[in-house]
Amino acid sequence: MAIREDVLVVGGGIAGVTAALAAAESGAQVRLLSHKKSTLRQASGLIDVLGAIGGVAPIADPFAAVDDLPDGHPYRVVGADAIRDGLDLFDGAVGDAYAGAHTDRNALVLTHGGTIKPTARYPKSVAPGLASVEKRTLLVGFAGLTDFDAPTAAAHLGAAGVPFDIDGATVPFPVEFRDDALTTRFAKALDGDESNARTRLVEAVAEELDGHERVGFPAMLGDQNESTVRAELEDRLGAAVFEIPTGPPSLLGLRLEDLLYDALDEAGVRISSGNPAVSYEASDRRIDAVLVDQRGREVPYGAEEFVLATGGLVGKGIDSDRESVTEPIFGCHIPHPADRYEWSEREAFGAHAFARFGVVPDGDLRPVDESGGNEFENLRAAGGVLGGADTAREKSAAGVSLATGAYAGRRAGEEATQ
Ligand SMILES: Cc1cc2nc3c(=O)[nH]c(=O)nc-3n(C[C@H](O)[C@H](O)[C@H](O)COP(=O)(O)OP(=O)(O)OC[C@H]3O[C@@H](n4cnc5c(N)ncnc54)[C@H](O)[C@@H]3O)c2cc1C
Predict the structure, then answer these.
(1) Hey, what CATH class is 127-244 in?
(2) Which of 337, 380, 338 is nearest to 359 (CA)?
(3) Cα 13 to middle of ligand 1, angstroms
(4) Of 145, 279, 363, 408, which shows the fewest CB atoms inside 10 Å?
(5) Which residues contact 124 (CB under 8 A, 6 or more apart)?
(6) 158 vs 39, 115, 152, 161, 218, CA distance in Å?
(7) Is the CB of 39 under 6 A from ligand 1?
(8) How many whole angstroms from 45 Cα to the centroid of ligand 1?
(9) In this model, does residue 2 exceed pLDDT 80?
């Protein structure tokens, strides 16, 4: 029997999940189709809405700054209400695992690189470490874990002028692993208290504590039992304990992925993952089906409305070669300078044109072609596949995905069920 839904969302990252949840709320039957489960496992687990404009940071209140963004920015297309809608959907999906919903203002989170990041939502385990909390702070890293050098991170934060004393120490991890062991292995050892890992960790850290009122560890304090591990460490050290977001593979990203996919299950969204969408069938500017490559066979997934949420250059929603930049499934128009030398700046952290490449939406998030007409009547785009935002520089990636995912999903759901 042919697969047919009210709404088909293509992409399993934050934008796709949010679009699917929003569409399901309108009563539509929704399927989320994703090649790789998601890129969340590489991400920090923080939800940045807007941290900087034009390289100037930090932005205190992202909502107050939306009008300062350039025309064509996705936030200018969907408006501040959609940002709130996306955050509400997120808060509903993650429940009390995240903090930050009490205010519109950014929180300032310590990063593993020794910088401070303005962010809108952060895991509960990160909350005791906010830079706005003035407590003598000890950062603790583990010997052999090259991703986080606690003394260097503490020195950077001290030099940046955080309003509290901050020091760093490196201790051996209580269980020995191979040099290339992943953070998940460390987390599981603490989860299961392997070889008395928690007691031995407390003993090692207690030697360095010296009156510090809170202790920050790289985010690996357990996989399934993080809150139990953290509570035990707090109790036995007599200090607040917090996690610092790490690079990939990111425990905070993995935990977020679990929470969001649980929410999809609860909302009744059907999930198909493991195979890429490669093409489509359409008539009269309406898409009938997306074609999915299942071991060389193109299988149609039909729907009334479609949401494209395949991410940017990292998620593979946008492809580029030496000549051109393309959107590989529907062939949506992506404006870019013909001269490749204009795609990037000389400075590594400059305002690169390529960072803004993506599909151009109309006011209803429907991609437009070169002449400004809709590519298709029933296709909307959300998240990193949209152009017009330099989300890495602005620190707005997850926020843009939430806001546009919420908008595109709701509109698709409304259209499909009316
Ligand atoms: C290392 C890293 C760190 C990050 N840190 C932060 C951070 O600190 N704060 C923050 O706010 N954001 C951060 N982000 C960004 C954030 O996690 C999202 O990547 C971003 O919001 C874009 O989300 P998205 O859903 O549009 O796309 P993606 O997350 O890129 O997801 C795209 C999805 O589409 C699927 N897909 C792609 N092509 C196809 C196809 N042909 N067929 C089917 N499925 C397809 C992919 O498999 C994937 O599931 C980080 C991202 C990364 C990679």
Answers:
(1) alpha beta
(2) 380
(3) 5
(4) 363
(5) 96, 97, 98, 99, 227
(6) 32, 10, 10, 5, 18
(7) yes
(8) 12
(9) no
